[in-house]
Amino acid sequence: MEVTQLLLSAQSPDGNTRLSAEETLKKFQEQDPSSFFVSLSIELSNEEKPSESRRLAGIILKNSLDAKDIITKERLSQQWFSIDINIKNQIKESLLRTLVSPVNEARHTSSQVIAKIASIEVPRKEWPDLIARLLNNITQQNSSSQLKQATLQALGYVCEEINPQDLEQSEVNSVLTAVVQGMAQTEQNVDVRLAAVQALYNALDFAQNNFETEMERTFIMKVICETAVAKELDIRQAAFECLVSICSTYYEMLEPYMDTLYTLTSNAVKVDEEPVALQAIEFWSSICDDEILIQEEYGDDEVESTTATNFQFIKKALPVLVPMLLETLLKQEEDQDQDDAWNLSMAGGTCLGLVARTVGDDVVPLVMPFVESNISSPDWRKREAATFAFGSILEGPSIEKLSPLVNLGLDFLLNAMKDQVVHVKDTTAWTLGRIFEFMHSPSSDFSVVNASNQPRIMSVLLESVKDSPNVADKVCGAIYNLALGYEDCDSASSLFSPYIGDVISSLLFTADRNDSTSSRLRSSAYETLNQIVRSSNISDTAGITVQLLHEIMRRLAQTVDLHISTLEDREKQADIQALLCAVLQVIVQKLSSSDTTKPTVAQVADQMMLLFLRVFGCNSSTVHEEAMLAIGALAYATGPQFEKYMGEFYKFLEKGLQNFEEHQVCSISVGVIGDICRALDSKILPYCDGIMTHLLKDLSNPVLHRSVKPPIFICFGDIALAIGEHFEKYLTYAMPMLQGAAEMCSTLVAQDEDMYDYGNQLRRSVFEAYSGILQGFKNTKAILLMPYAGNLLHFIDAIYRDKERDEGVTKAAIAALGDLADTLGTNVKTLLEERPFYKDFIRECLATDDEILRETATWAQGMLNRAIVS
Amino acid sequence: MAPHEIRRLFKRSAISNQQKRRDLALLRQAQQRADSQNRARSIATSVLSLLESSQTDDLEPVTEGSIEREEEYKEGIYFSQASRLKGSEAKKWFSRQLMIPEWMIDIPYPLSQDWYVFARPAGKRCFVVSSKGTTVGRLRNGSVLHYFPSLLPNGAKVKGLSGPTNGYCILDCVFHEKDQTYYVIDMICWRGHSLYECTAEFRFFWLNSKLSESGACNPPSRHHKYRFLPVSIYDCNQLGLHAAYMGEVPYVRDGLAFYNKHAHYQAGITPLALVWKDENCSEYFLDTDAKGQIPSQQQVALELHDDGKLTTSDEPPVEFGCLTKDILQKMDLQPGALLRFSIGKEGLRLLDGKLEAADLQYVCRVNRTRAFADSYSKILFQYMARHCPLPLKDLLESVNMPSSPENAINDVDMTE
């Protein structure tokens, strides 16, 4: 087959030619992957071929070996794995040969493909000579610079793809030697040097042992520091990237080098070009990250910990570090607030914020003189920098230290909301937001906001929310944080009640503004509105909340009738609908929380449900999720009345249950079934066949996101509790699923925190499911559950023996144990007697400090004794 | 390398609460799920059915499961086996479910901020349980005082009045003979909701708002044999203390009760509820004997242990004295017996509020219908009553101390 032509056609400007070439390539790949791989690798290595076709051949090869999606990735590596070994060797040889190509694109792409194959083969020890072959390219006397460059790139990419344990220490040593040599000043070729620094960046994780040896570590650090002052910008930048990476990986080994590193970074911040200066600031931000983490995990007392030592680099560098950062704040861009700008001033302020969190009070006296001398300056840059500095240090230092300053400065800041320059107003509004975020906490009896300054604060905020979109957005943030302080604090939230009417009108007005190109302001306005509703004292604001409910419903109705002609229109409609459904959800939940206002929800339920159904008709996933959440809240508020909506709603529920791609939607939909079960009780029965079918299908679908599984198990319990004995026909399907999940729990190895959390969620959910099912069958047909009792006890036993178990899991397990005895009574007597562990388990739970656990265990003990004794 | 994504957001973080909405929705669902599961489990009902079945259980012999009883006893856990206990053991179990106040031997601080006060009705302390169409009044020792219909939720077999079938109630009351009324001094369960883990503040608030709604405060009628009335509960400031001490009450007053606002309902003796009395506010300032006479010397009931020690009923017990092996044998006394002593001329010797020595004179064995020895605080209160009583004046002074600006949280709070 003439691949060259195909590859060129696939890049043709003519759509039809391109499409048909892509089709042919795809077919070729499907029909004969081996030949396909061979042809592409030959194309890539052939110096006679045009660079365009060679490059695309490489890219297609690369994409045929790896994918972002984990399932596709697994399939692709299986495909590669199944190719005949001689063919694979032929392909790999051809790729290695290409590294010497004079054509840069061919070399580079080849190095990437080599790394992809390495990611499959090196962990399985199927490419044992790869590293040696690559190193040989570098060490050979007569190697061209081009070969060296491509080989270093290949080494870097290989390190990026594989894990440190996949290489022998001797291989790591040789790689590091080669890379460091390539970085040295003696290396004349700039491209080689750059490739070497970039390779080192990826190889750093492999250098654990080398870093532990002082001589090797010092040598590596010395070379990096030399490289950080190279003539070429991109080499300097890459060297600083290495330093940033080192300070998070090898923090505890940095101490001997800190003086040098300080000089190096401060020079870079002061005189080097922006990309390098940004990395130099990032270096200090990363040090802050390290020290904040150590303080959070081990407390900030200076006790030597065996696992992590806090060297307090930031505290020691403070007198020089802070002035350096303050300088950067003056280097604003003219239009920096217009987009997501990342520049010296932003990076400097961010780092200052981290420094404040790292050292607390100590930062204040170093920053305040700068604030005081610049905040009234005629130069807007100085005013903005002073405000930014002040705002940056509001998190970290103690309230005692900050509150006199904030009390003194608050009025000044409120006045500054009338500054001539937008940047200054923007930063001032942001600073006000930070003040309310960190210095306003009525629930713990502290706030800089009081009865005497609150009227002025509110009038300034409500005036400034009309300012330019960027400023308005920050003002929304300030109102949001102000409201957030009153959440869960009924006594204080009354202080906010008098303003709520005006705040709501202003936010509704803001959400309607069309002077901003981005949707950001609208979103901020509605999200702030949500917080206002959440934080309001419902006994003061019931009336206004109901009014708001009607207004939001009116707005949602408008979006449904909107004329949609373009994709953009559709997106905008979906965005607004998601925001409005969110507000409705928050309002419904708020009104349902009080017995006096709960009936108002039932009054508008028909109308609201109709709207949601129309919104579902517009079809968009984010809306789907928000509307689902709202419907769950509505089902709770309306109770059995919800039955009348089920006929119409059911098809959208089904859609949600089938949405595997957006697992959040799927998960939320499953949760809503629980709400409906509790609202309808046995009246949900007609829908259960359908629902159970979908849930069971979901569970057996390999692409289902794992996070949806626990909610599905819990949902089994909800359904069984609602329909009781009618769950009988699902038992033969549901119970093996539970059993399978229980078995999986015991084999699950928690490699990381996510997996650990997931394991616990899964365990809890299995117990919740057993509990619901056992209680559902308690009054009739309990005996049907006998066949499953042994498995459940076995699972509980396994949990009991796990001494590291999570408390939530313990509670669920003890409750399920009680449910087993409650429902099956004397039928499980023999089973229990065979497994006396339960006595110890109960005893252990009775001895805890957790009252709920104790109560559940007491109850379970009563049930067990009844089963055993009678 | 791109800047850290989170760093970029330092000054431009967007307000997005989608995750918060999800989390709150999940929290709401989890709470409601727990509610419905607990309803299904009827945790408290099972306790209740045991309470109910006990009066017939006296007929059944104790069979299995008694080996572990003693151990479980101490842990306070064996609801199911309680139903199988007989006689004194059953009484002991039930008597452990009431919260028993200590006697006030010194004034807790800050009395005015953390405590309520009310006039204690004279009468029989009872558990009242309404469930499945009946109401039972049960004395402190577990025996039944009355079986009767009432307007408490599920307290009578009346259509339309009972509400959900599992909506039982458990009240802590004093039955006042003279007007045949149950005065409710605490609420433990209401309509199936346990208030065990709630503060006194909340329980009293609930008691005041729910009791009258139920109709239980109505005068007696065919379906409501005895009337229930709440007692007026005051913040323990000067006004409250006066009202509780002198104010008009429809019952005979027997001292004052003090409840700590933050304390949960707790079975057994607790220092977070206190009793105090003097001769003006109680007919029974000094303990009387079986004939209603005040003995010339203070009488105390103590429990005998196998090592001869004589102790109070407190947890842990306080030792008042010790009998030698010889005496035990001579008098044929078994461990566990309750013995009555009088306190001799030497009285009690206290050092820093702790008992050093007691001059005990043996009187007799105590009738076994009594479940408990005296508590330490009771003995001390009676001792002080005879020698240097804690006067009202001291209580008033204590609440008037200018410690707290919040002294005057209005009484209306609890009594409206």
Characterise the protein shown here:
- The complex is a heterodimer of chains A (870) and B (416).
- Chain A contains 41 helices and two strands.
- In chain A, helix 32 (663-680) runs parallel beside helix 34.
- The longest helix of chain A has 26 residues, at 567-592.
- Chain B is α+β, with helices and mostly antiparallel strands and 416 residues long.
- Chain B has helices at 5-8, 18-41, 43-57, 69-75, 79-82, 87-95, 111-114, 200-213, 238-246, 325-331, 376-387, 392-400, 412-415; strands at residues 99-103, 115-121, 124-131, 134-139, 144-148, 169-176, 181-190, 193-194, 227-230, 234-235, 253-260, 268-276, 299-304, 309-311, 319-322, 338-351, 354-365.
- The model of chain B is unreliable at 43-90 and 404-416 (pLDDT under 50).
- Classes of the chains: A mainly alpha (870), B alpha+beta (416).
- Chains A and B meet through helix 16, helix 18, helix 24, helix 26 and helix 28 of A and helix 2, helix 3 and helix 5 of B.
Name the descriptors.
heterodimer; A: 870 residues; mainly alpha; Leucine-rich Repeat Variant; two-stranded antiparallel ribbon; 2 strands; globular; B: 416 residues; alpha+beta; D-amino Acid Aminotransferase, Chain A, domain 1; OB fold (Dihydrolipoamide Acetyltransferase, E2P); 2 domains; 7-stranded mixed β-sheet; 5-stranded mixed β-sheet; 13 helices; 17 strands
